[in-house]
């Protein structure tokens, strides 16, 4: 498979700057960088973005994430490696990534569990991380970007 074109964000410096700023802004707060990367990995798995799957496990690993959590994030509900707070954020990630799969994409049950564990600032960080990775996934998938070329 060959990419259809370069990633649009790479072709538009203003877009790259804006997306980079969004990524950095999303990491402000109390959520560990390793967990931001796990959220990015999970959304990318759902979307089938090979570039981001390939890149975000590397970033998470460099930041100190464990192999167990990296390997188990796709099955987070059935493993002992995630806290209740992390499970709430992973549920939000899946809901926000699969917006068209249900009439109420982010139901109160998911939101209520989220607010049990996080304050508004941290929820903002989670929401921005999930929104940001979904933008990157969509750009990469639409243009058929190839895994292996971007190695953070």
UniProtKB/TrEMBL annotation:
Gene3D superfamilies named among the record's database cross-references: AhpD-like
Molecular function terms from GO: peroxiredoxin activity
Domain Carboxymuconolactone decarboxylase-like positions: 13-94
PANTHER family linked: 4-CARBOXYMUCONOLACTONE DECARBOXYLASE FAMILY PROTEIN (AFU_ORTHOLOGUE AFUA_6G11590), BLL7811 PROTEIN
Official protein name in the record: Alkylhydroperoxidase AhpD family core domain protein
Source organism: Afipia felis
Organism taxonomic ancestry: Bacteria, Pseudomonadati, Pseudomonadota, Alphaproteobacteria, Hyphomicrobiales
């Amino acid at each position: 498979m060959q990419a259809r074109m370069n990633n649009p964000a790479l072709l538009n410096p203003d877009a790259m700057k804006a997306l980079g700023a969004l990524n950095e802004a999303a990491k402000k707060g109390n959520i560990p960088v390793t967990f931001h990367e796990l959220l990015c990995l999970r959304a990318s798995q759902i979307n089938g973005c090979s570039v981001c799957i390939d890149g975000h496990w590397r970033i998470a690993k460099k930041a100190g994430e464990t192999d167990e959590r990296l390997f188990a994030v796709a099955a987070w509900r059935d493993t002992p490696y995630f806290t209740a707070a992390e499970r709430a954020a992973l549920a939000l990630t899946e809901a926000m990534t699969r917006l068209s799969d249900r009439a109420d994409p982010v139901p109160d049950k998911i939101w209520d569990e989220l607010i049990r564990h996080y304050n508004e600032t941290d929820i903002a960080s989670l929401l921005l991380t999930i929104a940001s990775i979904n933008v990157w996934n969509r750009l990469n998938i639409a243009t058929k970007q190839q895994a292996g070329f971007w190695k953070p």
